[in-house]
Amino acid sequence: MTTSQTNLYHLTIREAAGLLKSGQLSPVELTQAFLDRIAATDDRLHSYIIVLKEQALDDARLAEAEIRRGDYKGPLHGIPFALKDLYDTAGVTTTAGSKVYIDRVPTEDATTTARLKSAGGILLGKLAMHEFALGGPDFTTPFPPARNPWNLDHITGGSSSGSGSAVASGQAMAALGSCTGGSIRGPASLCGIVGLKATYGRVSRAGVVTLSWSQDHCGPMTWTVEDTAYMMQALAGYDPKDPTTSTAPVPDYSLSLREDIKGLTIGVPRHFFFAPHENVNPEVVATVEKGLKVLEGLGANLQEVTIPSLEYVRAANSIIMLSEAFAFHEKNLRTRPQDFGEMVRARFRIGGMFSASDYVQSQRVRKLVNREFAAVLRKVDVLVTPTMTQPAAAFEGYDATSTVRGPSFTAPFNLTGLPAISVPCGFTASGLPVGMQIAGKPFDEPGVIRAAYAYQQEARWFEQRPSI
Questions:
Q1: Which stretches in the chain have pLDDT values below 50?
Q2: Does residue 159 carry a catalytic annotation?
């Protein structure tokens, strides 16, 4: 493996960690390579809101000194990462992509930020996002929308738009996204990377700007499944600052990185995720069907399953999310509406129009769907579906209502809180990435990671990089 600065930004965490630990690679050299990559490409990608060049190099020098004296902290030590700009960073602006928060400077780090730093990670900067994690690619906000490295004329998906773009283009080795209806797995799918939304309560949300208290999740976005496992090891666990976090022990996620899935039973809910629909791209579905054949060839057993209430999930997810978002933002919506982008302001106001009955009925749907998923997951080990209904749309002619028409393939796992990962599964004829979603039982991130890793190692889509 060459370690010339030209291709350092294409190393995975696993590859770089070995070089850093052995002293063959300096954290300073690695960090500088990423800073140079950002400087060379971000005028086209718009992944970053702020680049912390001097801070990153200072942290890299500290990591270098620690490793040299034998204080190696693990696989994230000296690894450059970036944060969606709703993760609090002490002394560094956290805008959530909005003029409303344009001057907001937190006094302490989010728990997740602190945990990655404690593991030795090097923070490169704060990433672009859809305003307040809901606004869509909106040119009326203070920051230009991030662009897809596979085709700059196309969107990245959202709301973790900069996270998807930065990891896919080699501007960061890893990033954090947040997910309320699909905002980790969606950009991961559309940008050809890996994104994991862990079980609700597995990763702290303390110090992360709220969209929907009962559906928000935090999680990693990386180039490979093993890199996601390393990130999860640092992120997972109880946090007294977030009372929704679980006290369940955190497993060693690296033990899930094995290629044997013989005998694994995979549930396939074709009646919803694979059925013909005017708002579902048949090329996406066909690509994931090929992925299922790969899993079957590895020894997994495919079993069709039915989850009857899936058709109500999008409505329930949206009503709960928008109602809770309106409650969070109500004061600013009333006193400074002009500071919101057009898209997010309209969506938040819809949340103020739902009735108490709408919210309660949506919670009843949530309970029903949870019971149905629990029944199915007693019969199968994981579920496999397409991640998204469409490949990345073009900016030109983009219809902002497209995200709320038709089914959502990601929202069911926010509503239920189940763990779900998106792993690259191929490309459309026009060269746009397609993701396959693997979901599992509560707190069975190890099972989800195992299935995703086995597929990745067989299909090897990670060997293809965008040409930017």
A1: 1-6
A2: yes
Which residues is 92 bridged to in the sheet? Answer: 89
Is 461 in a helix, a strand, or coil?
Answer: helix
> What integer pLDDT is reported at residue 339 of this predicted model?
98
Calpha distance 343→147 (Å, rounded): 18
Based on the residue annotation, tell me whether 197 is a catalytic residue of this protein. Answer: no
Rounded to an integer, what distance in angstroms lies between the CA atom of residue 450 and that of residue 434?
20
Q: What is the pLDDT of residue 5?
A: 47
H helix or E strand, kind and range, residue 117? helix 111-118
Spatial strand order of the sheet with 48-51 comes to 48-51, 122-127, 80-84, 174-179, 217-222, 194-197, 420-427, 433-440, 382-386, 265-268, 301-304
Return the pLDDT at 1. 35
Count of other CB atoms within 10 angstroms of residue 304: 11
Q: Which of 26, 98, 169, 183 is catalytic?
A: 183
Residue 84 appears among annotated catalytic residues: yes
DSSP-derived letter for residue 238 is -
Angle separating helix axes 53-68 and 27-45, nearest 10 degrees: 160
CB neighbour list of residue 239: distance below 8 Å, 6 or more residues apart: 111, 204, 206, 245
Q: How far apart are CA 204 and CA 208, in angstroms?
A: 9
Q: Where are the domains of the chain?
A: 9-463
Give the list of residues 6+ apart from residue 335 with CB closer than 8 angstroms, or none. Answer: none
Residue pair 310/365 in contact by the 8 Å Cβ criterion: no
Which of 80, 98, 252, 105 has its CA nearest to residue 175? Answer: 80
pLDDT recorded at residue 308: 97
Of 26, 47, 84, 362, the active-site residue reads 84
**What is the spatial distance between Cα 402 and Cα 14, in angstroms, rounded to a whole number?**
37
Nearest to 15 by CA among 257, 6, 24: 24
Structure tokens at 190: 């559309």
Catalytic residue among 98, 159, 169, 408: 159
Highest CATH level, class, for 9-463: alpha beta
What's the pLDDT at 4? Answer: 46
pLDDT in tens, 281-340: 999 999 999 999 999 999 999 999 999 999 999 999 999 999 999 999 999 999 999 999
Only one residue has tokens 């996002």, namely 129
